[in-house]
Amino acid sequence: MALNNVNILVAVTGGIAAYKCPEVIRRLTEYGASIQVVMTESAREFVKPLVFQAVSGNAVHVDLLDDQAEAGMGHIELARWADVVLIVPATANTLARMACGVADDLLSTICLATRSPVIVAPAMNSVMWEHPATQANLKTLQSRGIILLAPEAGSQACGETGIGRLMEPEKIVESLKQMACDGGQLTMKHVAQSTDSSLLKGVKVLLTAGPTREAIDPVRFISNHSSGKMGFALARAATDAGAEVTLIAGPVKLETPGGVKRIDVSSALQMHEIALSIAGECDIFISVAAVADYRVDEIKAQKIKKTGDDMTLTLIRNPDILADVASMETKPFCVGFAAETENLDAYARGKLQKKNLDMIVGNLVGVQSSGFNSDTNAVDVFWGSSGHVAYSSRSKESLATDLITLIASRYGERH
Ligand SMILES: Cc1cc2nc3c(=O)[nH]c(=O)nc-3n(C[C@H](O)[C@H](O)[C@H](O)COP(=O)(O)O)c2cc1C
């Protein structure tokens, strides 16, 4: 069995979604995992420890400063016993306490005392999730290697709609199974995050990706370092979310994700023409391509010969594909990408307003592990007058899943 001999310490914290945790434990045990359960004081207000004792087959651990508990399996024993610590659901409070390194109850102390991977599956009201404090705490935790099973979008117990629902129990269990098992020790090489396949069911999504090439003569061109990886990852995530996806790709060497209709182009003018001809029939337009702002005014028919010491090229403005789509009469929900090397917030928010976009993903390029050609990316997403979520550095695939979930949520609110 996939989780045979794997010791999983499941920690339950005080959120409504605590009632879903017994289902997670039941499924984990079906795959052969051994389970010990720790509950915070608040968690015990939501679900009785007896429920967890029944599904795990072990007495539930609740106290840190208890003689009898310490004489049995105390906090250090539990921390050593665990191959992995899985906090499900993880409240905003617990995430904040972990980020600060607090150790004043059993769970927080175990989190500091364990050398094993710690996985958090947060669940909370969407405003709590999007709060800069929660996002900053997550950033801190992820920078320390804590693994996030990101919450999903949808209707919430509090009556709101947005991101914050606990990842479905079967997906949590799938994620654990997918982590490489090596001699009973879980090594967190990767956690596959999958998008809910009904999030964008029947929605038509158009994306642009990669660079454009602006020809100078038959052998030379002006271009940029865009690899197309982010746009292709988003196309894949949108397809996984059930969307009908068309991808207009500049010159890149990437495989077309399954189920995606790809149209290859070279120049900004070609990309503009195709995008404008399709965008009117689409529901969502995601402009990820790094489109050249300028092209040479006249492409020479023959190779330009080396003559003097200087050569002057006259460049003229290319049309702004995103702005043109966003000003269409029946415009799709428009998402832009802003690659900046400084003042990310101000520039990204400026573009959001100037181009009349529904959302903008600000991307700091020129820094390590972010932006062009990198396999990872960290972005800040802005919408409306104050909407903002920061996503810390993660693989472009994982980020694409998060972004599509967020886009689906904002698009869903509009329609
Ligand atoms: C009815 C109710 C539901 C709550 N649901 C959540 C929730 O889903 N997520 C969350 O982060 N906090 C939620 N809270 C707040 C937490 O219970 C509170 O922050 C508590 O201090 C968490 O403690 P713990 O992290 O030690 O378990 C809820 C509170 C109440 C009263």
Summed up, the helix count is: 15
**CATH homologous superfamily caption of the largest domain:** CoaB-like
E-strand count: 21
Q: Domains counted in the coordinates: how many? A: 2
Kindly report the CATH topology of the largest domain: Rossmann fold
Secondary structure category:
alpha/beta
Largest sheet, in brief, is: 8 strands, mixed
CATH level 1 class label of the largest domain:
Alpha Beta
User: What distance separates the N and C termini?
Assistant: 44 Å
Q: On the 0-100 scale, what is the average pLDDT?
A: 89
Residues in helix, %: 25-40%
Q: What's the CATH architecture name of the largest domain? A: 3-Layer(aba) Sandwich
Radius of gyration: 25 Å
Strands of the widest sheet, in order across it, are 14-13-10-15-18-19-20-21
Bound molecules: flavin mononucleotide
Q: Which band does the percent of strand residues land in?
A: 25-35%
